[in-house]
Amino acid sequence: MGTVIMECKNLSKRYGKQTALDAITMSLEGGRITGLLGPNGSGKTTLIKLANGLLKPSGGKVLIEGKKIGVESKAAVAYLPDRFVLDGWIRIAEILNFFAGFYADFRRDVAETMLANLGIGLDKRFKALSKGNGEKVQLILVMARNARLYLLDEPIGGVDPAAREYIINMIINNHSENSAVLISTHLIQDVEQILDDVIFLKEGKIVLKECANDLRSEKGVSVDTHFREVFKC
User: Fold this and answer.
1) Which domains does the chain have, with CATH numbers?
2) Which residue pairs, CB below 8 angstroms and at least 24 apart, start in 108-117?
């Protein structure tokens, strides 16, 4: 058993009369990559935003290394949103300056090495990048941090298959060894090989949380195939 990095206890979130998360209880351990899987509207992004402190729960709580969400917990979390949130006209060098000044654990040398490997100059404006390179830059900014918890919301959703492979390798090779990684995605087949654990969310409830290898052994099918069976229309 690894160290518990993130823990949800009876965590709920409601938007008016709509329940996005319904009293879920779960934990993530250090040294493991977990796939957060479910159809649209299942609560994946809501869970990630709650863990990052962007939303407040309607009930229950989230703990990061035993601490309630706050300044200290946020410093331990690296978050990849599903869309770029900075001004598109900003230059890559300016983005690096911002991250280096804002996050004490930002490894600028790591970020610059990965950017150089992609041939992306620091004088480039983010808006001038292709969609695939833009996705890679956003992930570089996140994975260059020496965080305890990485929350990745659809990291490969808008890129071509070749770019997906590069991004997956970036996740494998750059997250801190004892950290926890939570990946929300619809593209299960593309990320399945790197997942240690899987969580299936349906209508705000956890319907399965299991070791990926155990699931394959017990069911005799891939995680992707079992997902399709559970969520088939």
Assistant:
1) 4-42+53-67+75-230 (3.40.50.300)
2) 108/144, 110/143, 110/144, 110/174, 111/140, 111/141, 111/144, 114/140, 114/143, 114/144, 114/170, 114/174, 115/140
